Amino acid sequence: MDNSAARLLRVLERCKEIDTGVDCATAWREVLAAPDNNVLLGAFGEFFTLVNDTASEVLHRHPDLVDAVDHWRSRIFNGFNATQMNGRWEHFLAHIDNVTLFSLRSQAKVLHSEERRTELAPDQLSQIYQHLSQALELIGNGDMPVEIREMLIGRIENLQALINRYRFVGQKALLDSAKLLAADVASIPVSQIEGLKKAGIYDQIRESLAILANATTISATGPMIAGAAQNLLSLIR
Q1: Integer CA distances (angstroms), 5 to 14, 120, 125, 222, 231, in order
Q2: Burial class (CB within 10 angstroms; exposed 0-12, middle 13-18, buried 19+) of 161
């Protein structure tokens, strides 16, 4: 499943897998894949944005679930506020009760029934990222106007950043960023596009976007995501 409730549930399930005897800073670095505390601060922002986005999405579609949403949201925030970085991990986990996990699991299933999307596989994300990295390398060595170079680098790096944050942002954010990249490539004058093609840049970008579009089309039955993926494919042909 790929929806906000399912992503939040996966984070909390990962929390449950960490040794209860460690301090919270160590545990959070493991859960949020943050190598140091500086990166961890940014990861916290993404995590709590996911918490709020999940609550907003569930309540927008099902306002009658307010009590269940209030329960898991308060458990997460209270657990974090009670322990911060220096507390013991077991004290945070004490707040993440079975009701929290059950409620999120149920809400994830409800959202999935309304718009079915499966999580993109790590190897698919890795392939997309690698093609984008190869494009960046070729752009760095290529000869093109400064404004085109900066535009492509900015769009590609933004998409790569979202791939790294996929566990928090999901498919829609990736597709939105990919469509901006595709639209910018489509706006480049034909004379410059030929240079990008000769350098191999165009093919690397097209391949990365094609993998993303095909993967999201296959994983989705909902018209919004499937339609966005088809629109992306039309931009890069």
Answers
A1: 14, 16, 21, 17, 26
A2: exposed
Alpha helices in 20-84 (DSSP H): 24-31, 37-61, 66-83
**Which of 194-211 are b and which e, b meaning 16 or more Cβ less than 10 Å from the residue's Cβ?**
ebbeebebbebbbbbbbb
223 Cβ contact partners less than 8 Å away, ≥ 6 residues apart: none
Domain ranges of the chain: 4-114, 122-236
**Each residue of 36-65: pLDDT tens digit?**
888 888 889 999 999 999 999 999 999 999
CA distance 95 to 72: 9
Evaluate if pTM is beyond 0.70: yes
* Residue 126 CB partners (closer than 8 Å, separation 6+): none
